[in-house]
Amino acid sequence: MTALTIKGVCKSFGDHPVLDGVDLTVADGELTAVLGASGCGKTTLLRLIAGFAAPDEGTIALGDDVVVGDGTFVSPQRRRVGYVPQEGALFPHLDVAENIVFGLPRSERKAHHRVDELLELVGLDRRVRHRAPHQLSGGQQQRVALARALAPRPTLLLLDEPFSSLDAALRTETREAVVSALRAASASALLVTHDQGEAMSMADRIAIMRDGRIVQADAPAAVYGQPADAATARSVGHANVLEAQVRDGLAHTSIGPIPLRRLRRDGPAQILVRPEQVLIVPADGTSIQTLARVDRVHFYGHDSVVALTVLATDERVLARISGGTSPVLGATVDLELAGEAMNYATEP
Amino acid sequence: MWLLRGVSLLVALLVTLPLLYVVGYTVDAGWAQVSRLVFRARVLELTWNTVRLTLAAIAMCALVGTTTAWLVGRTALRGRRLWHVLMVAPLAIPAFVNSYAWVSLVPGLHGFGGALLIVTLSYFPLVYLPVSAMLGGLDPALEEVSRSLGFGSWGTFRRVVLPQLRPALLGGSLLVGLHLLAEFGALRMLQYPTFTTAIYDQYRSSFAGPAANSLATVLVIACLFLLLTELRLRGHRHLARVGHGTARATTRLRAGRWATPGLVLVASVAVLAVGLPMAMLARWLWVGSSTTLELGTLTATLTQSLLLGLVAALATTALALPVAWLSVRHAGPFATLLERSTYVSSALPGIVVALALVTLTISFAQPWYQTAPVLVIAYVILFMPRAMVGLQAAIRQVPPALDEVASSLGAGVVARFARVTLPLIAPGAGAGAALVFLAVITELTSTLLLAPIGTETLATTFWGYSSSLAYGAAAPYAVLMVVLSLPATYLLTRPTRKGHLR
């Protein structure tokens, strides 16, 4: 059973096409992230699903009910879709509890039905129930907005970059709270974001969106390990482009040979390898050496990304190393490749 | 959406009715007749009177308003908060009450000189307010740079401050000009004939005849000319800064040897514009209460004034709401046109609006002639911008996302309005409605022409008494008008509020 089915949705503003034939499904109880750069049309897609705008073409179905397409248009208030906008958009004239019960029938509103339960679900203390929105921190506001969206038990929850206005520490914490709240409510959700880390860590499935199309929809590991094309590979993490000669299923690069994930005929090619596939090894003089110079070290604490120049060819590559040991700037090191390289018909 | 557009269009049509009428009349009457009625010696004299008083008053108000604003805002004057309130306070005293106070003290105060004195004292706050708001928002760094480049305080003022004040000065001057073209009571009392007083006289002698209407055409042209001139001179600078109440620390000059003259100047403006009228009111109230006070009439008049003000405030706010909503949420050429049209109409003098409504009701809706609804419509036309400004500001502060969230939570159009929009815009709408209410309380010209027989407001009763030189009997009504105007005036002294006055 699918919570959301989108088929062939197109939308233009003036003569500027924003969505160009979008197909996407969200399975029941699943969190799908739509990942794309700003301006790729992901927010427009969300607004079409919510019913704030109508597509020019295509159909959108929630469960088995077509809400848009084939001449029907169901208004937003009849779609039973929960919506959490960027800044939370809590009603400033209502306190936390009143915000949460906004979408419930009048009798349940009066009784503050489910308020405590929902506060607990999103990880908020019961004492905030009578606070005004402006007395809450950004993360708390987002959690209340989530509780408000979950209160009427929607068939699908839409999250529009809900963490982008939060600072780094708060963002991680709020993400975790949201994921566990969604799991506990076994709600289906569609999250729109431009943050690949957010999409990878939160979602069951990632849909990569570019130029108004979904180019790949898969599990995070599959999108990272088997991206549909080079641009997709880059949109979910760093990727090195290397010149290679293909012979017998092996790509021979300046750093050495590496097996290809997909077979292709022999000849010159460009291949992609992730920085963690580039290994920095001590120069021991036994194997064939690929000498490279350390240009820069970006230290992230849990790991470092090292920028190197291969001395023989002047190719620039990135290598990811874990732990606290980092090579000295300007030092000469030996490189090796591990795993399989990504390669595409149209490169890169 | 289409309903919203339709309703907004109807509102815009309603408020542009007087303007459309004047244009229609002029076209209909034909050039020959209009020119015969307009190009006369009498009209030439009126034109001369009107033009020279308008220009002189604009110049005087700009001078007094800017000087006092600079003295209060930028020098280390003692008791600046008090002086600020006193410089805005003349707005609480209707010009016709001010002239009554002066004439009752100096009976010989007539003609150009007297008129210029009174209108300057009554209208200089219209320049003072925007200029002082602008002075408070100027970047002090610019002045510091100028000083470091070797310019003294006068040089800096002339070369740096004054150019930046241009939009405020122009806006204030436009308001002074429009007020002056519309002014009836004060000038009539000072026996200084202008277009507005002449139209009133024509109306009294020959009703809404061709002569009155032709004069109205000229007056409308003068108003539109002022509006266009201001728009032209202002250019695009307007967008730069106006209306943002940024609280930046501004430096204050130590006035040094000019401290005393500065203080004397501000104090004498306060005495002439506020102290003297208030003292005269107090005196006549004392005299009047001992002789002719009829408490019953006073109560009845007050009730009618309050009732009219309340109904007009509600009607204006309700009618302004769809236009304000459209202009904020669905901005576009159509919405802007509708919104602007409500401003243009309200720039017309009350006498023109009233004359148009008199003629239109007599021609097309005879039973409605001189009824309360038509009077309320006149108030709506005249004072809609006051409601519009507050509503637009309030709607702008309501993020559209709230509406979307509410609809995704199942709330329909009506529920969204009642549960989200209305509670959020209520303060802004209330402030706008209060401004309309207070404008109605002191409105004289339209009320004189349109009020139903037997309906007397504070303003018309005061006018009746003071015209027949019953100064004592008139005083209580004037005092009530001033007292009722005080809260709105105080609202204007708060720095963040840049009220659109009329």
Any overview of this molecule?
The complex is a heterodimer of chains A (348) and B (502). Chain A has 348 residues and is α+β, with helices and mostly antiparallel strands. Chain A has two domains: 2-230, P-loop containing nucleotide triphosphate hydrolases (Rossmann fold); 238-344, OB fold (Dihydrolipoamide Acetyltransferase, E2P). Chain A has nine helices and 20 strands. Chain A has helices at 42-50, 96-100, 106-110, 115-121, 138-150, 168-184, 196-202, 220-225, 230-235, and strands at 2-13, 16-27, 31-35, 57-62, 65-69, 72-73, 81-84, 156-160, 189-193, 205-210, 213-218, 240-247, 250-253, 256-259, 267-273, 278-281, 291-299, 303-310, 316-322, 332-337. In chain A, the strands form four sheets. In chain A, strands 7-8-9-3-10-11 form a six-stranded mixed β-sheet, sandwiched between helices. In chain A, a hairpin with a 2-residue loop joins β5 and β6. Chain A is globular, with a radius of gyration of 24 Å. The mean pLDDT of chain A is 87. With 502 residues, chain B is mainly α. In chain B, α2 (41-74) runs parallel beside α6, α14 crosses α17 (372-396) and α17 (372-396) crosses α19. Chain B starts with a helix and ends in a 9-residue tail after the last helix. Residues 236-248 and 496-502 of chain B have low confidence and may be disordered. Classes of the chains: A alpha+beta (348), B mainly alpha (502). Chains A and B meet through β7 and α5 of A and α18 and α19 of B.
